[in-house]
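Anyone able to model this chain together with glyoxylic acid?
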Amino acid sequence: MARAPGAVWCRAMSRIFVARRLPGPAIDRLREAGHEVEVYPGELPPSRDELLAGVAEAEGLLSLLTDRVDGELMDAAPNLEAIANFAVGCDNIDLAAAAERGIPVGVAAHVLTDATADLTMALLLAASRNIVTSEHDAHAGRWKTWEPEGWLGRDLRGAQMLVVGRGRIGQAVAERAAPFGIEVTFAGRDDDLLALLPEADIVTLHCPLTDQTRHLIDTAALEAMKPDSLLINTTRGGVVDQAALIAALEAGTIGGAALDVTDPEPPAEGDPIFTAPNLLLVPHIGSATAATRAAMGNSAADNLLAALDGRPMPTPAPAPS
Ligand code: GLV
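re: yes, here you go
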């Protein structure tokens, strides 16, 4: 059942549910535009019931990647006219269900490209030069002398990097890698990944999570990688078969991994990801700079303001596949 746009567009005031407190001016901008904005106040994401209650009367939803926005939620929100995700990824949203109901979906495209590419390089440098382990060792009294064989890492000049995904973030990583003397190859959706992996010293993932990319890095892919290669993931945990990755790290069949994302997030207490060897793990901070998070809020606000005014969203989500 598609929403009937003509009947409801161009109303002066809409109710907008924002699923968490956000940095930057986005919420003030929505209020200044005359909308009634309810911001979920918790530190943790709203529970399912809280989310359903929050959207029950809402015309606009500003969701986070931690919120599952599916057909059930859309049906529980009969007035819903616009969804803006505070993320560039939108695997938390059922795009087909939104399209069926005529609800436009927006994403925070463009604004987090640099921050995410910077974090990818930070992970690459930190993992390649043992920054975290050596820093811990220095503080823990294990710095006994200048050690000819201590904390040996990998050189970057001449290293082969395979960037999986030909989008903006992958391109931005390639731009940053070039001045280090890293040689970059891309793998897009039509390339034979298994043929490219054996050449790479560094594999960095920048494709969205879709039905086609779920577990793209599985046992076969990990087996195709070089034994001293590094896997970096700053996209979505589900692109990697995490059990297969842990097995590969434990067996030493790849050199290491640096993850900004896991599956699920956060991992449950006691998850073997926490004890896997040669693994650098950070808590999904790819876009976590103050300016980028403010820009993401502004992007979501721009998408909502446009759609609630009957205009196309400036940065719509991709069409459902
Ligand atoms: C972060 O992971 C995003 O998709 O914006």
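The pocket of glyoxylic acid is lined by residues 65, 87-89, 112, 286-287 (CB under 6 Å).
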